[in-house]
Amino acid sequence: ALAAPAVAQSAPQIKWRIASSFPKSLDTLYGGAEVFAKAISEMTDGAFTAQISPAGELAPGLQAADAVARGRADACHTSSAYYLDKDPAFALGAATPFGPNARQTNAWLRSGGAEMLDELYARFDLVGLACGNTGAQMGGWFRKDVNAVGDLQGLKIRVSGLGAQVFAKLGAAPQPLGGGDVYPALEKGEIDAAEWIGPYDDQKLGLYQVAKNYYYPGWQAGGPSVQLLIGKAKWEALPARYKAIATGAAAIANETMLARYDAQNPRALRELVAAGVKLKPYPKDVMEAAYKASQEVYAELYQKSPAFKKIHEAQAAFRNEDVLWFRVAELPFDVFMAQMQSRG
Amino acid sequence: ALAAPAVAQSAPQIKWRIASSFPKSLDTLYGGAEVFAKAISEMTDGAFTAQISPAGELAPGLQAADAVARGRADACHTSSAYYLDKDPAFALGAATPFGPNARQTNAWLRSGGAEMLDELYARFDLVGLACGNTGAQMGGWFRKDVNAVGDLQGLKIRVSGLGAQVFAKLGAAPQPLGGGDVYPALEKGEIDAAEWIGPYDDQKLGLYQVAKNYYYPGWQAGGPSVQLLIGKAKWEALPARYKAIATGAAAIANETMLARYDAQNPRALRELVAAGVKLKPYPKDVMEAAYKASQEVYAELYQKSPAFKKIHEAQAAFRNEDVLWFRVAELPFDVFMAQMQSRG
User: Fold this and answer.
1) What are the GO MF terms of this UniProt record (chains A, B) (predicted)?
2) Would the CB atoms of B337 and A252 count as touching at under 8 Å?
């Protein structure tokens, strides 16, 4: 290294308040903001820090972005899919039924996707950074078998985001419930089914004790991105160096959350199966009907939201290209490894 | 934000020399170091920078780590699989036949894998940061069809890393050739086949002009990680803040390289197919024979290198758990999306 004398740099002391959409008990999701906060502090010797508030402290979890709008927080760590009432295009920052998987999402974000989303977010005085991903989720917990699409008729299912609109087209009755309300509703039979996240988080909610059938895959969320949505004025007030540091910290958090899920889900899945959970693939006709219904939902959203149309068309075109490529190299490799393992 | 008066922080001026193992023409691989260098500079307002030298300038590409050992570079951006002569365990930092895919590699690195590799690297006065990934590679270019494992008998194939040892067990005659030598050797018939990377990079080498059969998947490299190997003394001389910044910059580069491959490979694949390339899956018996041979190679390496045994056992155990989990959520989702797309 060529070392020259150190220079003195001005380091503004900035402490962000981050409103998390998640409770501390969902440690992997909540931890995304903690990883981000630790990284910005380490990268600035404590000059740029963040204090994280769990869901409910500055705002209800599903309204964390409103804490930013009201100036109670500088940023929120959240799922943009919670804000469909602002514009349905917010779903495209997080997850859409039959959308890109986690890796395709990251690739799209770094290929112009992030800029398209920031145009949307700017209308609400927000700036976004991808700050975590859960990987493909599970389909959910069902009290009774789902043998055909007809079994969804009248089914009360807890499901969030655009997945709810797809389930509605299939004849189900989607119920919006927060995490804490899912177990009691399922236990009392007020709902028949519930999707949540995946084995590690689902195990914590204890849903397997009241619904034994665990369906896969989670077509409603094939690779959901978790966002840091930052107040635009707060972002613009950062020195350029801190913006770069926040970007690097978000990249660490983005990869770390997915890595933690990939490390934690296998054991949870084993334990769930040992506890009597019945793992079942969605029947083919359910998958195909849901796919078809999702296309109808998208066609309707194209009419309602020009932003949804513009961003979804770009994202779907990118995803289609990647699916083509994954059919050649990634999938045959992964499928072969799965076959070798299933032989024991 | 709670803003307090800015403090003055001492910012040492540090300029690293990074020896790349790659030529500038392989812009996605080479670009990993450029993304890293841009990020550290932006995060320090230009106090911590890096100058990158392409393969051949400070050391031959396959010996970039030696430039670090000899003090000609502070770090190298390379594939640790180039240094099997130091210890075969170096392969585990990059890619092994039938090893983890890109996402599983990242998850393992962040679940104790990076620390295990750093123990290995420390024996050679190096510290490692994951700084890119190509995703699953292609099997390679073959002048003649491969219909059965017997067709590999005596086949002269350009292949690097542990994949070469597996091909040797299958009766082939692996040839170590640098990137620039592959096309002429294949054109003159000095070799019969060559694996390189994937559509985007392979297209640049023009291999399709002299070998039309393009086999998949690249079982020799299902998700190769690219490393920044840093001189241990240079790393330890960094202020804690710069270490955190380098870690963040590497995370950006790690994700960006994979994203670029995922964005660029689909178009290159289309163009190759339009140019008459014949895409072919490896026959099942070739895949299974290669898998079996890889297990034999690993058993032999366990005898030769305690580090290989220790790290490979840990990596394989993690990978096996992830493959189990991917069989439930990720793969069925990805396979369904591929099926929908193949219907057009």
Assistant:
1) metal ion binding
2) no
Q: Residue A156's beta-bridge partner residues?
A: A173
Amino acid A19 reads: A
What is the C-alpha separation between A308 and A241, in angstroms, rounded?
Answer: 33
How far apart are the C-alpha atoms of B123 and B103, rounded to whole Å?
A: 27
| CA pair distance A183, A186, nearest whole angstrom | 5
Question: Hey, how many other C-beta atoms are within 10 angstroms of the C-beta on B202?
Answer: 25
Instruction: Return d(Cα B252, Cα A76) in angstroms, integer.
Output: 21
Beta bridge partners of A124: none
Query: What is the number of other CB atoms lying within 10 angstroms of the CB of residue A176?
Result: 11
Among residues A136, A106, A93, which one has the least CA distance to residue A307?
A93
DSSP string, A196-255: -S-HHHHHHHTGGGT--EEEE--TT-SS-EEEEEEEHHHHHTS-HHHHHHHHHHHHHHHH
Place of tokens 């799965």: A338
In A, minimum Cα distance to B318 occurs at A263
- Is residue B8 a contact partner of residue A10, using CB atoms and an 8 Å limit? yes
- Tens-of-pLDDT digits for all 344 residues of chain A? 656 678 888 899 999 999 999 999 999 999 999 999 999 999 999 999 999 999 999 999 999 999 999 999 999 999 999 999 999 999 999 999 999 999 999 999 999 999 999 999 999 999 999 999 999 999 999 999 999 999 999 999 999 889 999 999 999 999 988 777 899 999 999 999 999 999 999 999 999 999 999 999 999 999 999 999 999 999 999 999 999 999 999 999 999 999 999 999 999 999 999 999 999 999 999 999 999 999 999 999 999 999 999 999 999 999 999 999 999 999 999 999 999 988 86
Q: Any idea where the domains of chain B sit in the sequence?
A: 14-134+222-264
pLDDT at B2: 59
Number of C-beta neighbours around residue B142 at 10 A: 24
Are the C-beta atoms of residues A217 and A138 closer than 8 Å to each other?
yes
| Cis-peptide, bond into residue A217, ω within 30° of zero | yes
- Binding-site residue set of A for substrate: 137, 158, 195
CB-nearest to B42 from A234, A244, A325 is A244
Distance CA A200, CA A259 (A): 13
Q: Do B42 and A5 touch (CB under 8 A)?
A: no
Question: Do the beta carbons of residue A229 and residue A120 sit within 8 Å?
Answer: no
B95 contacts in chain A (CB < 8 Å): none
Indicate the SS3 state at residue B213: strand
Widest Cα–Cα separation across chain A:
74
